[in-house]
Amino acid sequence: MDKIQSDCPYPGCFFCVMKEANPSKRRASVLKFFRELPSQDDDGQVLPISGLWNTAMAHPNDPEFINLGIFESMAALIWKGLKNRRWLAHDQNIYIPYYAAHIIGSYTMNMEEFAERAVRAGVIPPLVELLRGRLTWVEQRVAVRALGHLATYPSTFPAVADHGEVLELAIQLASSSLEIVYSHFYQFVDRRLGYHCDLLTRGMGGVEMESRKAEEWASQLQCWSLQLINCFAFKPEFLHDICKADFLVKLPGMWGGLVNENSPAGVGLLRTICQSKVGRGHVANIPGTIDALCNIARSSDDWQYMAVDCLIWLVQDASTCHKVIDKVAPTLIDLADISTLGDYKKLGDTIVTVLQECIQQSGNSRGAISTQTKAEIDELLRSKQNLKLEKSMPKEDLHIKQAAALVVKLEGNSLFSSGNIAGAAEKYSEALALCPMKSKKERVVLYSNRAQCYLLLQQPLSAISDATRALCLHSPVNRHAKSLWRRAQAYDMLGFAKESLLDAILFINECSQSNDPDLSLKQNKVPDYAERLVKKQMRAAWLFREAALKHGGVHCEGDASDAFGQDADDSEWETASESDADNDARGEADDETEWKNDGHQEDFCEKS
User: Fold this and answer.
1) Residues with Cβ < 8 Å from 590, sequence gap 6 or more?
2) pLDDT, tens digit, 9 for 90 and up, residues 112-165
3) What are the ARM repeat N-terminal plant domain coordinates in residue numbering (predicted)?
4) Considering the entire predicted model, what is its pTM?
5) Helix (H) or strand (E) holding 61
């Protein structure tokens, strides 16, 4: 050890200290290092701090450095960077506040005991100053991360909440984070701060990697701000500050994107808000938010179940049901055949029960539910009653119904092939009325086929409804390839880029696993029509799109058409849709349905 220390140019070097074999001496030296670090002005301080950053990420539950004063040291370093700009600009000290806040966040993300130590060490005030934007968005990102961890625990939340501006700052940051990162970093390549680029890429990439990482970090900045707000949303006294109309209407559009898909983002916060009566009252008054929740509930989004929760709670609440039922009921009806979704068991049964109770309650209040909505719910309830009756129906009678439905379906196929799309849709409706409720595979086919008809008839809302019903009936849920593709096209017609993108990506994933010769990817090549749609929607759903439009900027890797998806006109997408319909119309064996075809004309689109 003595030889190592004598060769090292830095007295008290942290890395030399860590090599000390004697545990007692090592602890004493580390304690001394943490105490003296904030007061030192030597060059090279960033090296041990970056080493501590690596250690904190790799071993966040290790108490050694916690007990030796790392929180006090990091808080002091952040203060030093905020108060002494000359020191901050010297050597590589500009990195230090970022690393210090990141270290605090890493050590507090799992252990409440560590979070309590951090609060006692005084980390919150300097973190709040970083959250204010006293330095840059890069430091805001790690500050909101650390404060979010501290706000998670019951014992440390009050200390965060005592700083009254934290919630307001987090709301502002969630709303403006994408624009901040775009305008302060992404837009102008030649103005990017060098230390930002180094932190983003660790010195391992060029402009393209910087841009990709900036999008990821911008998404994290927004999602971590939402996570911090979410901690406040569990407390009723903060809901009035959170539930401002201009913020609630934006929440459904705040998503992690493809770069941060593990965060529930805006819909996660809405779910927390909707758990309380006060929150539901605010949400029910924002029609745009309700519409967006319905879209998410119907989508293949990983957080679909959160939107479903919101809708169910809004309908169950007598004080909000009458405000939302006409918007929400069609979505819940489309989902009523779903069995399991995430941790939800028998979700469809829950939906039916909720809607049935809504109908019963509406009898006591005139005008609470429209005639059309009531008729749609009544139809759903009749279909569920028919399912119960089928259980006691003789097999011969079921076979008669199956045969009758098959005949009508084949008539629909023939009409479709001859170009009579409206007539085909009517036949599929007749077949659905005849088809036994328990014949799920065939009902998937009928709903999906009718969705294709609605697409060609330019009725995207009806196509989305039928495709959703097919996906709910299918096993596994949300994995019927052709229904995914049809719903992706319908969402595209309505301009819902995110929903269309998610369905198109899942469609490609299903094709890659399909045994269907018309769906399986030939030589692992994605179909051209699917690739075009994905590219279009990735541009349209680009996280920086609104910021780029506002600031008149363009995507740094291309021109304006690359940034905003202007290179694909409507006619091209109509052609793609019609081409896919033609592929469907070629006819495929119906060998996975519950019925035997016995030599009849083959179906125009479905195997399953």
Assistant:
1) 445, 597, 602, 603, 606, 607
2) 999 999 999 999 999 999 999 999 999 999 999 999 999 999 999 999 999 989
3) 6-244
4) 0.88
5) none
